[in-house]
Amino acid sequence: MITVRHPLYASPDRGIALAASILATHGFRVTPSDITVHAVGPSLNSNKENPLRGAGTVLLVFADGAVEGTADLAGTRRLCLFIRVFPPLLVGFLSIFFFFANGLRSGVQAACGLAPMLLVWLIVGPLLAGWIRSRSEAAFRTFVANVAVAR
To answer: What percent of the chain lies above the pLDDT cut of 90?
Structure first.
């Protein structure tokens, strides 16, 4: 969950219109009202997509001369979980497959052959997940800042 608050330098109507158009452009289902914008995102499926899509649910509140944005980053969490869990499961599945297909020796050889890649991925996976999360947080902060100065 991330919460960002910026002073509002434009009218709330312009901010709501800009927020709704940006979020709709990126595939969010947007529900604007008089002082809020609520949007549900399509989720983040790869690191090549716009990092703003990492926000699963976005709530912008325009009140007291400021805009406050809250996002849960559910899409980012989902992609990070996949990055951390998929490689170990793949190694386990291939080892079991080769064990049943060709016997114990083949299964052990497959596990030993894939173990170095698994060890590398156990280091790279969390680093990549942290990078994706920081990109999504930065994109959301920039989005709220841009909405605050909508002209």
So the answer is: 13
